[in-house]
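Z., the sequence and structure:
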Amino acid sequence: MSKVTKVLRSSSSSFVPPFIKHIFQKNTRLNYKLQGDVHMGINLAQKNPHLSLPIYENGVFRNPWTTWKEEPTFDALKMTVGRLFMSYPSKSEIKEKLPVITPERDEIFTSVPKGKVRATWLGQSTFLIQLDGINILTDPVFADKTWTFGHKRFTRAPLTLDQLPQIHCILISHSHPDHLDETVVYHFQNSVHWIIPKGLNEWFSKRGVSVSNEMSWWDRLTINFSSKTTKTTST
C-alpha cells in the first residue's frame, strides 16, 4: 500500500482537527477591547497569557498578530487573476497520486469503542469525526464548485451526502466558500446542530437554520445529544 493510500484511508486514531483543540500561541496576547458582546472566551483569554483576545469590530474579526499585514488591493487582485493561469497536474497524474478511496460503509456505520475516536478524511478540511455515538462533520464541502469564480474540485468527494451516517453536529471554522458549502447547509438545515463562528447567525438564518451556536475565540460549549454530551472549545 502506498504512502498516499495510507494517508487517505480512514483512521481510528485519536486525531481531531486542530481548530477544535486548544492551540496555544505564545506571546501573542494583545490588550484590545472587544466591540460588541462579551463572551466567556474573553474571560478565558484574560486569565491565560498564551491566548489572544478576540478583536471583533463592525461585524468582522481582526487579526491580532503584529506579523499580519493587509495585502494591497493590486497585489490581492494579481494573486487572484494569477490563479487562472497556473499550471495544474493532469487528470491522470491526480488520479495516480491522489486516488479517491471510498470509506468502508461497515466501518463508518459501526460505533466506535468507548474512549476511542475515529476520524475519516473526506477531502479538503472535511472530516467525519465519530466518538461516543456522536457523528460530527467539520467544514463539510461536497459540491464540485462552491462559488462562481472558484475552481472546480480536482477529485470527487469520496462520499455523497446521502451516503453519510446520521450526523449530529457540524463545525464550521470560517466562512470561506471552500469551508462553508451552501448546498450542505440546505441539505441538513435543522436536522443537525451547527457550531459556527460569531457573526454568521444571520447568514444561516436566511437559509433556514435556527439550531446553531455562534462561538467567539476560546468560547466553550457543552451540547447534549439525548443521553450523550460533547464539549468543544473555539480557537
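Residues 1-39 have pLDDT under 50 and may be disordered. The first strand starts at residue 56 and ends at 57.

Let me know what you think.
H.
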